[in-house]
Give the backbone structure.
Amino acid sequence: MTKISNLHKKWIKNPDYKKAYDESSVEFEIAKEVIETRMKSRLSQEDLAALMNTSQSAIARLESGVNLPSLRTLTKLAAATNTHIEIHFKPNKSSKQKMAA
């Protein structure tokens, strides 16, 4: 069986794939954080949905990485999981641009 990580390593060499991947990396990183937060809180999607006053399918969409969640949704998630939100901006790994003074 082929692991998705091996496929990704192969596909990332394709410029079209790389562009699409780079353009959606924020959505997938947020989805990963949402999933990890829910799991660390030992909550099912249904449990989290109840705490956030939403549906299990809404949590599944939130975890899919297809769309960016609103700050209001992330605030509800943080409250439901007894966590807080931190946002960081970091330089791109491949960027050689100098920061403006």
The chain has a mean pLDDT of 88. Residues 4-80 form a domain with the 434 Repressor (Amino-terminal Domain) fold (CATH 1.10.260.40).
